[in-house]
## 1
Amino acid sequence: MKAVVIYSTRHGCTAMAAELLRAALRDGADLVRLPGAEWPELSPYDTVILGTPIYVGKGEKALLRFSKAKLDELRTKRLGLFICAGDEDEGRSAAQLGTAFPAELMSLAVAKGNLGGDLDYGKLGGFTKFILRRAKGITSGYSRLSPARVEAFAARLADGTMTR
């Protein structure tokens, strides 16, 4: 299985998840960060994994633009979709996953899920800290990136069959 993980990141959590995922896949994977790299050619890959962080309930625009522009080609691939979000509520995670990627890709993905999140409170600006404190009661950082979720995601991807 020749795979590529295409991801966006702001503070590095999604990049860490992509690295863990690459290590968890039997044959590894190429990594491409958007924005920052040219859009990759997808023809060499039979498996494409897309990942994005969630901020204020939404995924990164660069990855959403890519997934919409490459929709026809992505339909022909074994597909994995993941988010990195600190909110561990399954219902909210499912909703956030659904807004981060086009609905058709959600229905085609053989693996999808929230791999966890990470918040370095010290790197945040005052306004962001204020919003987190008022809206969510968050007053310190956390690390919830889950190697177990990454392993489970990789296993679902390896075992999943394409229905197309």
## 2
Amino acid sequence: MIIGLTGKSCAGKDVVASLMEEEGFFVIDEDKLGHEALAENKEKLISVFGSQILTDDAIDRKKLGSIVFSDKKSLQALESISHPWMVKETEKRARKAEAEGRNVVINAAILTRLGLDAICDEIIFVDAPFELRARRAEARNGTKIEDFRKREQNQKDIITTFETFSGTIVTIINDGDKLTLYRQVKEYCDTILARG
């Protein structure tokens, strides 16, 4: 089974992913895959953005980020290079794990933007109120609420409804303590594992 795991910034996707990994699920982290995509597509990226994005002959994510996050066309150019590679790699890893009899979790904020919901049997949406997520962002990264609000504007396509998805959508609410979250995740994992 392939399960999509999504939700907005600081909702707690990574915590849910790590709990599911502890329960024996095979987790594919799209953020980490995005880093791999930069290295794998280094020459293409240099041809589009120039050698200014390099530090010590490697793609410097901060330098690249300062270009793409201030210009929509540059961001689209980056996504047109990295996203197809990420999707292909995700499908390859997911199918291999499935063939080995493992349940797969695709941890991706931009699950639908990547089109990966198309290969999922179920989707988990991790939800938490905006104010709580903003406080978590400030505590974790020192992100000011104005900046967090701007990031939120860029995540309008991360929603609890999936127009083209016909499978089960499970919402996990992460507005309490870790034990409450763990109980919800454990209950879900037990249900999946009981199916065999």
## 3
Amino acid sequence: MSRSGVAITLGLLLSACVLPPKELPHAQPLADDQLGLNGVAVAPAAEGWWKGFDDAQLDRLIDQAFANSPTLAEASARLREAVSQTDAAHAGLLPRAKLAAGATRARAPADYIIPPPYAGSVFWMAQAGASLSWDLDFWGKQADAVAQARALAQSANLEIDNTRLMLAGAIAQSYVELYRAYALSDIASRAEAQRQHIIDITRQRLAAGLDTQLELRTAEGQLPQARVEREQAQAAADLAVHQLAAITGAGAESYALIQRPKVNLDAALVLPADLPINLLARRPDVLAARLQIQAADAQRLASKAAFYPDVSLTALAGFGAFGLNNLFELNARGYGGGPMISLPLFDAGRLRAEYRGSEAALDAAVARYNDTVLKAVQQTADQLTRIDALSRERIDQQQTLGASEDAYRIAEERYRAGLASYLSVLNAETQVLAARRNSIDIVANLAVARVTLLLALGGSFDPAAAVDSASNPNSSSNLALSQVAP
């Protein structure tokens, strides 16, 4: 066929092939100026920030979680899976070679197609050889598949960082809850001792004729309630221990090993006063969501490239013969090679459906990113507000606790001296117990809020290395990481 004939044939084939649909407008990631991030940039917290609480048991539990947590093991397995998929996608860019050999026992028809002496007889047909094929990837479909797999692997790596961050935070927060339970148990025990003391005073007053059985029974009725509160606090401590063991990847055998915390809840944590301008770049979950956008866009480009012709080179060489004895004789050798072009002509809309699906997946990835970003901003803003409010409440509550304890002391002294009724003691005790519980709750809630804010800011995660590794200058994606970076 002449060159003009080849050109006409290719033109007709291209005109008849399936064309990609018109590209639709896509959702866009939220930008910094849409989020109100204008505070001073923050740096990563110190590695092992939880050691600032000065509790060796807390340090041990977090180290144990990093070593044994099933959640972290699952994240690591997902990373290995993503890396293997990246390697498999990259292999598609390289030539592929294989060796093959086989033999078939057959009876040839007795006619002119098979030469004598094999016509009409039973014999072996054997072949052995090597083949080489190479997809030239003119339209970048395989390169986009590699870019997608690489972005997913980088996202999986960031998920490990995020899992470690969440594990450390969850253990620190559960540890604070264990501290709270023990502190409330102390308050209940103290209340139990106080109520027993009041019972003793009431019995003395009853013997002196200053009180009646009514005051005594009322005082005795308050004692079991203190025991109930102490038992409830102990149950809460047990539940916190169970949670800590589960997070660290341990079972019931470790419950007895977790002792009362000796944590310094006022440990210094470097925290901002406003929403930092680099909030989004500090969080591994946000960076992972951004890479999900890059992966989805690479998938969309690969789906678009599937509409165009595939061009590949093939070559083969080997031996083929009737019978096994002469398979490797010189006359049995053969070879060949050349280019091959294939393109879709009719596929019942499959390629168009896959392309529309990839566009929808890209929009979904952008939506997930935006949702992650908005939640990150809300979580940080919530904790800033909470810390500010709790800090003021703590000052006021300290004054309230001091005043209520003074009032209880005065009421007890007046009751002992016969200058006040038991009702005044009971009211004062109710106020002081409530103040003590509130003080413990505020201290614990403030510690939890500070840890939560540290997590919201990315903890000790350093985004610099992650951003460098996530940037892929060889990617054919037209929605590069830098275009969606905050």
